[in-house]
Amino acid sequence: MATAKVNTVTENINLRYWQDGSYFKSWYPVCLSTDLAPGTIKGIDFLNSRIIAYRGPDGAPIVQSAYCPHLGADLSLGQMVEGEVRCPYHHWRFNAAGVCTLVPTLGRGLPTAKIQPYPVAERWGLIWVFNGHEPVGEVPTLLGVTEDDVIFRTIDMGLHNVESWIPITNALDFQHVKTVHGFPHDKDGSNFVFGPTSISFDFDVSHPTGAGKVFYQNTFSMRDFQPFPPGHFIMPTSNSPFPNWHHQFGVVAVLKSACPAEQVEALLATLLACLRQLNEEDSQIIGTIRFRPRGDAKLVKSDRALALMLDYYDRLPRGAPLD
Ligand code: FES
Ligand SMILES: [Fe+2]
Questions:
Q1: Is residue 87 within 6 Å of ligand 1 at its C-beta?
Q2: Which CATH homologous superfamily contains domain 36-120?
Q3: Which listed ligand is nearest to 289 at the C-alpha?
Q4: Distance separating alpha carbons of residues 243 and 143, to the nearest angstrom
């Protein structure tokens, strides 16, 4: 858990990546699909601000900034009334576009009073939110399959006292993959394919279909890595509720065509245990790390893949929360 020492350490990291108050523009998972019950409003800490999430009349998720433009009440304390959000304080109402449709004391709406809607998607058992008016890049996905191809499980893995981009450096820190986790994967970055918001690569020492992809700075999607048989998927991903913390979720899946039905549950349980074990093996190191800017870190030849990842981080778009 949080200690004064850990906070001091991670604040040093913020000087490099967060000093201008911006955050990585990214698709962030903000809650489980099952967390959004029809007719209820969920409040979520997000990028050092707050959002509300609820389902519209058609069941599709809607995400908006949480603070009422009147006097700033937290709208997650309000109610859904006739498909609209009603503020708990003076009962102003806001529609799916975020526009105030009713000020009770005026008997009409106030179109200039708005809450900010966020781009939102529902995939892999998660509600995803993009912190920009127009999404840049795709919603993170399991590699090479659709939801119909697999049986998947999605879990909430809780809050952790470190920025979300730091655990994801694990994905391409191949020294640690060997030393901490004992996996044989070894890459120098020469087969990385860089997109504007992703890094893709093949595990060529593993199964022929084995691959990994980092989406933005907060998601690592991988399939078919040793020691499991082909046809499996693991995807840790997280959001940034406030500085120095991330809220992690995990998706695991097995390919329907590759796994006998009677073995699916056991394999999913094994994959979830693997995901938790990987986290556990890293947690003490990652939770206390003092990650120096590259110019001060003694990176060596075998850190090349990681160095490429840090360059990629530098190129990722940044933006403030929309409120
Ligand atoms: S603070 Fe929301 S209606 Fe007044
Ligand atoms: Fe790790």
A1: yes
A2: Rieske [2Fe-2S] iron-sulphur domain (2.102.10.10)
A3: 2
A4: 30
Find the 49 Cα to ligand 1 centroid distance in Å.
Answer: 18
Compute CA distances 272 → 81, 174, 212, 276, 277, whole Å.
Answer: 39, 22, 17, 6, 9
Q: Does ligand 1 come within 6 angstroms of the Cβ of 178? A: no
Confidence of residue 259 (pLDDT cuts 50, 70, 90): confident
pLDDT category at 12 given cuts 50, 70, 90 is: very low
- Residues 170-195 have a mean pLDDT of 86
**Is 192 a pocket residue for ligand 1 (Cβ < 6 Å)?**
no
The two structure tokens encoding residue 94? 């806001």
Question: How far is the C-alpha of 249 from the C-alpha of 51, rounded, in Å?
Answer: 18
| Candidate ranges 10-24, 62-76, 162-176; pick with highest mean pLDDT | 62-76
Establish whether residue 37 lines the binding site of ligand 1, counting it when its CB lies within 6 angstroms of any ligand atom: no
Residues linked to residue 32 through DSSP beta bridges, in sequence order: 126
Tokens linked to 192: 């990385």
CATH superfamily of 133-319: Naphthalene 1,2-dioxygenase Alpha Subunit; Chain A, domain 1 (3.90.380.10)
Q: Give the distance (Å) from ligand 2 centre to CA of residue 287.
A: 12
What is the pTM assigned to this prediction? 0.92
Q: Find all residues with CB under 8 Å of 49, minimum gap 6, and list them.
A: 65, 66, 67, 321, 323
Q: CB atoms < 10 A from the CB of 277, how many?
A: 11
What sign has the CA pseudo-torsion 22, 27, 28, 30?
positive
100 in contact with ligand 1, CB cutoff 6 A: no
Question: Of 99-103, 139-143, 168-172, which gets the smallest average pLDDT?
Answer: 168-172
